[in-house]
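Reading group handout, session on sequence-to-structure problems. Before we discuss, look at one worked example. The prompt was deliberately terse, the way you'd type it at a terminal:

> structure Sulfurtransferase

The input record follows.
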Amino acid sequence: MQEETIMKQILTAVLATFAIALSAQAEEALSLTPQETYDMVQEQGDELLFVDVRDPVEIMFIGFTDAVDKNIPFKLVDRSAFLADKGRFAMNTNPEFAADVEKALKEKGLSKDDLVITMCRSGSTRGKPSAEYLLERGFTNVKYIDHGFQGSGAKEGKKKGMRIVNGWQNDGLPWSMTLNPEKIYRP
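And the output record:
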């Protein structure tokens, strides 16, 4: 009896350790570099969906890459709700986000089991959360671009705070200020 209890405790500890390790690997597996994403789009673009999850107004002022399949915002700016403490407007989850991503997959002949890559401005505020949001809704293969389209702000120097470190733009990948009207989100 006592040996059986000890074995159960050991087995439980081993399984818990294995689950934690898998969870950590899954977290890391979610992110891709901009270059990895660009290479995947070039090599296997028909087998994946690359989604820019920024609000289209943001894209209009920051830039766009035609490498994406579609712009489907994860968060939409709510101009009626200004957050004075943060100095910006509220951003609310797009209630049609998952359905629009699924529709875009179907348009390419893909399913919720095919690879979806999301990209926002910096990767952390909407890129990763949008990927997690899709995973929670039954999509099985979702990744996001670490550091997003515009990248991170410089930590020091004359350009401190400016987004000149990493990201799609700073990696020298193709982008422009011209929006593709066939790809940009319009409700």
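Points for discussion. First: Confidence is low (pLDDT under 50) at residues 14-29. Second: The beta strands are 31-32, 48-52, 70-71, 75-83, 88-93, 115-119, 142-145, 152-153, 163-165.
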